[in-house]
Specification:
Layout (H helix, E strand, L loop, with lengths): L2 H6 L2 H16 L12 H16 L35 H13 L4 H27 L2 H12 L2 H6 L6 H21 L4 H16 L4 H16 L9 H25 L13 H19 L2 H17 L1 H14 L5 H18 L10 H4 L2 H14 L5 H28 L6 H8 L3 H7 L8 E4 L6 H6 L3 E4 L4 H10 L4 E5 H7 L4 H4 L2 E6 L3 E6 L15
Parallel strand pairs: 1-2, 1-3
Antiparallel strand pairs: 3-5, 4-5
Length: about 525
């Protein structure tokens, strides 16, 4: 067997290597409750999956455990239901089905589902890289660089929908490239639009990719490379599905409010935009990729300019053979331009949300890496062993980096982590105290919003902030049956909020949280009085 034949048959080994790499990175975290960085968003998504178990798998009415939602009333108004507007929760729905199948709601089910979808995304990333480079070593290296990106490594076995949506987007992009190879009328364009349409439904920011493809196709029409006529129905169906769900989501938001952001968050001025982007760079630049990854990329970029000259002739021949006159660089430029516009539109979110990078610039960065690798000469049998050894050593170093990063992200003094630990066993505690499953609970100072309710397996109202007017509003106006407070928070906040906390009548405690009723009279004159009689 010559090297060319071997090259095309190496994908099972390449995928096995990537799966093993994923297991090595996340094996110790697969059962971990969502905490630490962006625990808020992660637990909200976890709650959506659990909500489908509670509403008999009603896909069109997703819900969490919260009655008083963040938008548009900033937790001050309670809805009649816990239904919430949210981007199409396809992955959360699949997770709920898996939980039903396995008979457990443990976090490992969600993490495993995300991991599997992420690996499918890596399979199509490998196929995408191989389609451009025609080299299995370069293609598996692209997968290694993706999986050891700190931000991607943190989420690829987590709860954020960015990773599943990215996987669909990569698959869609791969089939789009097959369409470019096969020509007009090819079935691959329809498959591409379907996959990217699902990605957009799950995470609206992937509309950038959809728009980039449409713009590139229109550019090809203008260059008389295609008529685009056969592609129109697929685009209409994809866009129609997205617009249709947006309309339904708007209806849900009007009827039930939402716990999820539902609008643009652009800055008020150009100076503020620059400041916010600089903050995002300072916060996350070495989370998007590690310092060593940036250095590896710069080395590859330099080598591509030094040694890429001989390969350019082959590229020209390949383009002429396939009739391609518009370079993928033009498509990439359109895609990046869309990502930049989105960054400006969501500038206020950029400093605090690292996973927005997965939604936007991550895939263009991986494409850029593929293009750079493609400028280097092809691997042959003689050099393959050397390159494989280099990749193994590089992967080992990058995994060491990413493992350190994952440990650094786990701050065990984090408020979300402490709340999750305090509410461990809360469901059994409330069951033991004969608190009905349909009882509405008001939690004080417990953050993030859905964490205590997931662990209590009950719905209710959250007052996690320290603004006295918000707490007073919740105490006075929400239709709760019980109040639950962490013992440590009662002690810590007693002086600050004593006009409310003095009226909490303790009914039972498990040592970490206390079940209370709100009394019309003062019950506790001091922290020491907060004991079950």
């Amino acid at each position: 067997m010559n090297y060319t034949d071997l090259n095309r048959r190496m994908w099972p080994i390449a995928m096995l290597a990537l799966v093993v790499l994923g297991i090595v990175i996340h094996r110790q975290y697969m059962g971990e409750f969502p905490s630490f960085v962006h625990a808020w968003s992660q637990t909200d998504r976890y709650a959506i999956a659990l909500g489908f178990l509670n509403n008999d798998f009603d896909l069109l009415h997703p819900e969490t455990f919260i009655y008083n939602k963040q938008y548009p009333h900033w937790w001050k108004h309670a809805s009649e239901t816990t239904i919430t507007a949210v981007d199409f929760p396809l992955h959360e729905y699949v997770v709920a089905l898996l939980m039903k199948f396995f008979g457990t709601t443990s976090p490992w089910v969600f993490r495993l589902s995300t991991f599997v979808v992420a690996m499918l995304g890596m399979f199509f990333l490998y196929k995408l890289a191989f389609k451009i480079t025609d080299d299995w070593i370069k293609s598996v290296f692209v997968g290694i660089m993706a999986m050891t990106s700190p931000v991607y490594a943190y989420y690829f076995a987590g709860f954020i929908p960015s990773v599943p949506a990215l996987s669909f987007a990569i698959a869609g992009l791969y089939f789009y490239l097959k369409h470019l190879d096969e020509g007009e009328g090819c079935k691959y364009f329809s498959i591409s639009m379907a996959l990217i349409g699902v990605a957009v439904l799950m995470r609206m920011s992937f509309a950038i990719l959809l728009v980039a493809i449409v713009c590139f196709e229109l550019l090809r029409v203008w260059k008389k490379e295609t008529t685009f006529g056969n592609q129109v129905p697929s685009v209409i169906i994809a866009v129609g599905a997205v617009v249709g769900y947006m309309a339904w989501n708007s209806h849900l938001r009007a009827m039930h409010d939402t716990v999820f952001l539902c609008g643009l968050m652009h800055a008020g001025s150009w100076d503020e935009t620059k400041e916010l982007i600089l903050q995002a760079k300072n916060n996350w630049f070495y989370q998007y990729f590690s310092d060593r990854q940036y250095k590896v990329f710069l080395v590859l970029l330099g080598l591509s300019f030094i040694f890429g000259k001989g390969n350019r002739r082959e590229q020209r021949e390949r383009k002429n053979r396939k009739g391609e006159t518009l370079s993928l660089w033009k498509f990439w430029s359109i895609y990046v331009f869309g990502c930049v516009l989105f960054l400006f539109a969501m500038a206020k979110q950029a400093p605090d949300h690292d996973y927005y990078f997965i939604d936007t610039f991550f895939l263009p960065c991986l494409m850029l890496l593929i293009f750079v690798l493609n400028r280097l000469g092809k691997t042959d049998m003689q050099s393959a062993i050397t390159f494989v050894l280099l990749i193994v050593v590089t992967a080992d170093v990058l995994v060491e980096d990413v493992n350190k990063n994952l440990k650094d992200r786990r701050d065990y003094t984090d408020r979300a982590y402490i709340t999750s630990k305090n509410f461990e066993g809360a469901e059994d505690f409330l069951n033991k105290e004969n608190v009905p499953k349909d009882a509405k609970i008001l939690t004080l100072f417990a953050c993030p919003q859905n964490v205590p309710f997931i662990l209590m397996n009950r719905k209710g109202y959250t007052e996690m902030w320290y603004e006295l007017d918000m707490i007073e509003n919740g105490i006075a106006n929400f239709d709760y049956d019980y109040i639950v407070i962490e013992n440590v928070n009662f002690e810590k906040e007693f002086e600050y909020c004593n006009h409310i906390l003095r009226r909490l009548k303790p009914l039972a405690t498990n040592g970490k949280i206390t079940l209370c009723e709100y009394s019309d009279t003062i019950v506790c004159n001091s922290v020491a009085d907060f004991v079950v009689k």
